[in-house]
Design brief:
The structure is a single chain. The longest helix has 13 residues. Strands 3-2-1-4-5-6 form a 6-stranded parallel β-sheet, with helices on both faces. The chain is α/β, with parallel strands linked by helices. Helix content is 35%, strand content 17%. α2 runs antiparallel to α9. The chain starts with 6 loop residues before the first strand and ends in a 7-residue tail after the last helix.
Length: 205
């Protein structure tokens, strides 16, 4: 009997900082799509933004990601793009993972806002063969499926839609809360909160 292909989830981002919504998204995808593990891929720089992330160095963002995921065997980190520097392109990551394990089935995990920018991504047509795109919506948000713009539909990507538990948290709001001396506990793992305060991150973001 033929074995089923190994399934891996890919979650990219600047993780500035990593927070509970990232971890919940990864866990839900791991469960719903029966993934062997979810690989977090920190970017050196988002190619759709003019400047690198501010407030934390690449090494600090990577350390926070290690603190958040290191005790969970379902999660791993691929920091090659971050260490390379410059704009990070997901197509390069997907092609690298596919060449390493040709039989692996890849699931690219995206929030709804990121999914809407897919037409602007480098070589996005290649995603048809490289991965299944999983679009994550929070409960209460409009179902994205019938509202996808024609520009995105014309790409003919393999897409799945996954609702997420309600959790209103974003990296930009976390940085604002730190700057204003508001609490961030329970919005990020305790070890990440301690790291942010110990190193004085985001106080002048």
């Amino acid at each position: 009997m033929a074995l089923s292909p190994e399934r891996l989830g890919i979650l990219g981002g600047t993780f500035n900082p990593v927070h509970m919504a990232h971890l919940i998204l990864a866990q839900e995808a791991w469960y719903r799509f029966e993934l062997k593990r979810v690989i977090f891929v920190p970017a050196a720089q988002n190619p759709l933004k003019a400047e690198p992330p501010e407030g934390a160095t690449p090494a600090q963002r990577l350390k926070m990601l290690e603190l958040a995921t290191g005790q969970d065997a379902r999660f791993s980190i691929d920091a090659r793009d971050m260490r390379h520097g410059g704009p990070s392109y997901m197509v390069d990551t997907l092609q690298r993972l596919r060449s390493r394990s040709p039989g692996t089935e890849l699931f690219l995990l995206l929030g709804a806002d990121s999914a809407l920018t897919l037409p602007q991504w480098k070589d996005v047509q290649a995603y048809r063969e490289l991965c299944t795109v999983v679009v994550c919506n929070r409960p209460g948000e409009q179902d994205l499926a019938p509202a996808l713009p024609q520009e995105l539909l014309s790409l003919s990507l393999r897409m799945e839609f996954m609702p997420l538990p309600m959790l209103e948290v974003s990296a930009s709001d976390l940085r604002r809360r730190v700057r204003l001396s508001k609490p961030i506990r329970y919005l990020v793992p305790d070890a990440v909160a301690a790291f942010i305060h110990e190193h004085g991150l985001y106080l002048a973001d």
